[in-house]
Write a sequence for this structure.
């Protein structure tokens, strides 16, 4: 007889709980990227060049999130548009990239939609955690929460980066939009 397929290895994100009772419309509006924890080598090499990054969230259909990210690349403001589609459970989303095996699993780990959101991203087996704020300055209590979330997935202070709280792009021209 044929052997059974081995069980799928649990991904690090499977252990992360999504925010209970998440109301997607409460996430709508402008957010600022405050911090990110990631083992991404590009981030480590270029952390001294981090640019202020703002995000606008809309909920087009009551179950997906449309994310419009405004950030500078080489001094030019770009808008990057993405759609987070609902995954198997509330607070969990799937971001499909371009090409084979380029999907990103997304979990809204903890949020108070009036002040902060801590969101986990996993591509392949690599995980990162991002802290977004309704303002570009965040209280120490929220920073402590973020750092605790970072530690729960095995990341540490040495791979945690904070973004500038000034110099945001407010708009782009039509030639600098990536869908």
């Amino acid at each position: 007889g044929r052997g059974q397929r081995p069980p799928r290895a649990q991904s690090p994100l499977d252990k992360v709980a999504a925010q209970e009772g998440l109301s997607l419309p409460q996430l709508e509006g402008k957010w600022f990227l405050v911090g990110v924890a990631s083992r991404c080598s590009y981030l480590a090499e270029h952390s001294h060049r981090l640019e202020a990054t703002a995000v606008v969230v809309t909920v087009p259909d009551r179950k997906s999130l449309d994310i419009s990210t405004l950030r500078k690349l080489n001094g030019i403001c770009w808008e990057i548009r993405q759609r987070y589609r609902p995954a198997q459970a509330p607070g969990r989303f799937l971001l499909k990239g371009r090409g084979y095996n380029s999907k990103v699993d997304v979990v809204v780990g903890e949020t108070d939609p009036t002040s902060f959101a801590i969101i986990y991203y996993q591509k392949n087996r690599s995980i990162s955690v991002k802290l977004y704020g309704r303002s570009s300055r965040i209280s120490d209590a929220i920073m402590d929460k973020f750092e605790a979330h970072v530690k729960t997935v095995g990341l540490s202070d040495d791979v945690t980066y904070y973004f500038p709280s000034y110099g945001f792009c407010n708009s782009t021209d039509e030639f600098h939009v990536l869908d």
Notes: The chain has a mean pLDDT of 89.
